[in-house]
Fold:
Amino acid sequence: DTEVTQTPKHLVMGMTNKKSLKCEQHMGHRAMYWYKQKAKKPPELMFVYSYEKLSINESVPSRFSPECPNSSLLNLHLHALQPEDSALYLCASSQDRGNRAETQYFGPGTRLLVL
Amino acid sequence: AQSVTQLGSHVSVSEGALVLLRCNYSSSVPPYLFWYVQYPNQGLQLLLKYTSAATLVKGINDFEAEFKKSETSFHLTKPSAHMSDAAEYFCAVKVVYGGATNKLIFGTGTLLAVQP
Structure:
């Protein structure tokens, strides 16, 4: 099973709302990633968790707050977002055994619209 | 810094024709390269990856890519296009930081259209 699941599939929120995106994998992977993908653009890395600890934050604004409660689950908490934050948010996971050849497996994404 | 460049943001082929999607890399260390496909409104699916074991890499759905160090290229090919191949294709290079921390850097993507 090489499945990464993400919920919800679609999300519409106002600029004053607080919402959360959820990502789950049961492949025993120890690295999990959040990417942001704007329309007709490639994915851009936001955060990386390795063994449940934040290892990379690509200078993401604080209105995005990641959380890794356990090795299978990754959340992205959203607060006071701007319309330009509207995008497809992709989650990915990989084994993280230090092997550069490891594959990152992607979920289907959450399409976020900020009004 | 490591990077990949995809030449041609749009490629159109006829059904049954050869597919060629171009990717060039820049890296001061032996690169680990990946090709992903993204169908409309979906996530990314791995097609194939280069890990230095063999220069010709075969992937899913009859796609393959050849690593050419002299040309710093990793072009994706398929002998005969199907309508179902219409999608966005991304080339990516893996950047490794200390320990096991790593990330993918993607090219700008190539949108493949397949004409009947």
